[in-house]
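Can't paste images in this forum, so I'm doing it all in text. The chain is below; anyone willing to post the predicted structure tokens underneath?
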Amino acid sequence: MFKKFNVVDWFILLFLILIIGFAFLKVTSTLDTQNHIEAIVTFEAEEQPMGLINAIAIGDSLYDSSRDTYIGEVVSVDYTEYKELIKNDLDEMEYKAIPDKYNAIVQVKVELEDSELGLSVGNRRIIIGTSVRVKSRSYVFDGDVVDLEIQ
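Text version of the structure:
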């Protein structure tokens, strides 16, 4: 029923142990290179209604809508008038405020992972210029990362 191990069996067994060992070392070495860094990420959501800006509250937990991963906690909410470049009566181009449209500026406290690939949160790289669909329990918006302040 059971036979003795021959030389080929021992080599196969040793080879499997080496493969498992190298895979384990590779996984643990990539986990060790990640550092967690606290930062404030500023999102800007253009052309939003005032209702959305009023719905965003300090302390809200925000998530990446497309990946359903946690981003961070809102620490500040502000807004500016939304302006578009429009030709005036003198055929000159100028920025004019558009009624009932605002740019929401939302600062979020996040815990970034610093690895060989760069800064990321919830498996999404975060760099200035990144667009993220952000959601909470009661709202969703598309925001661009406009500032990244390491704490």
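The longest strand covers residues 93-115. Residues 1-32 form one domain.
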